[in-house]
Design a protein that fits this description.
The structure is a single chain. The chain is mostly helical. The chain has one domain: Amino acid/polyamine transporter I, CATH 1.20.1740. A two-stranded antiparallel ribbon has the order 1-2. Helix 4 crosses helix 19. It is globular and about 60 Å long. It starts with a helix and ends in a 6-residue tail after the last helix. About 1% of the residues have low confidence. Bound molecules: 4-fluoro-L-phenylalanine (PFF). One of its GO terms (cellular component) is membrane.
Amino acid sequence: LGVYYAMGVQKEERFSKGGFILSAIASAVGLGNIWKFPYITGEHGGAAFFLLFIICLLLVGLPLLLAELAIGRSSRASAASSFTKLGGGGRSWRIAGLLQVLTPFLILCFYVVVVGWTFHYAVLAFSGSLQAGTDFGGVFKQFIGGYMPIVWQAISMMLIGWIVVKGVSGGIERFNKILIPTMAVLLLLLMIRSVTLPGAGEGISFFLKPDFSQLTPESALVALGHAFFSLSLGMGILLTYGAYVDRRQSLGPAALAIGAGDLIYALIAGLIIFPTIFSFGIAPNEGPSLVFIALPAAFSVMPLGTLFGGLFFVLLAIAALTSAVSILEVPVAFAKEQWGWSRTKAVWTIAGISFLCGIPLAVSLGMRPDLGFLGKSLFDWIDFLTSNILLPVSGLIVTIFAGYYWKQAGEAAGLSARWFRIWLFMLRYIIPILMLLVLLHTSGILKL
Ligand code: PFF
């Protein structure tokens, strides 16, 4: 081994089998599950939307997940060069690859701002500052209007960098092995608290008893877009993680396990949030402010609310942190491959630049409302550009590459002949159309 290193050959970074599945679940379970999923489910009428989400996970999410993992593992390259390495010749596949690194970098810039908010709220909750009768909307506004979001953003970025710098198995996998079970315990504790609240039954039935009359064509596209986001697709993450997966690991069962993990965490998050808000008479369609304004109000009047509120925000912080870890790894893998940087140099350079780029986004929501245009803050613009435009475009690229260009897709995915035919059919004919519809809808061209 000594000779190996002396020759300048770096030991390749790899996940263990279980560590890979846990790390992909850790990436999937994020603010999307605990913050966004409950509020869009609330806005689209509850249980029927949840069913739709499950169908989208199965029909679109899992085939794309498998495609990204298979491309990553076969190319053993960063997300930027996986297409070209597998035979996507020409400039356009190179550009398509670069997009798989640019998009996660942009997401990282604003996602870390929100990671910071969750840490701030965990501290607020535990310190007992979220008392009954507080104007929670005012507290939130005052917080994002000041300097503290930047301080928390810096702390969060350092923590994320500190995990990623330790490497794939020594950092990402090692921390996820601790944090995923921690999240499971917190979720279960919080679920027991919320389903035993008086009036919880109404929230449970809103979430689990379908009323199909509430569904609109728009709900279908929202569910589809969310299934895609929730599995961390189109962000280069699974292309990158795929490159660290052992040759002998079966990707089909792994994809199923990751999808199931994501779904279970979303289900439990719903079972925490809906009973709580119904029990305290809060409307389920509050929108994005649900988690930072409506829930603190509920915790403030609940028995042992300081403890449970604190635990809830710790849960949210861990979920956000582990997703941010996975997205930082994408540009890091790229910089190592492209410029031959060491992991340490790549992590701290990218974390630093992304932190600096995130500052104008953070303050555009508070003290610098002039940083924005056409009625949207800079923060909202970057969120809109990535979530609504770049992610569906990335999804389209992956499905077209795996469905039409890549000749070895079958062997790489390791499916039986029958499943391979179904998978290819979905990638070729169904998913491109659906992704195109999502793109037209989220970009505002298709109005429903
Ligand atoms: N699946 C993640 C979530 O639900 O939050 C999506 C994600 C967003 C992953 C941002 C990573 C990230 F930085």
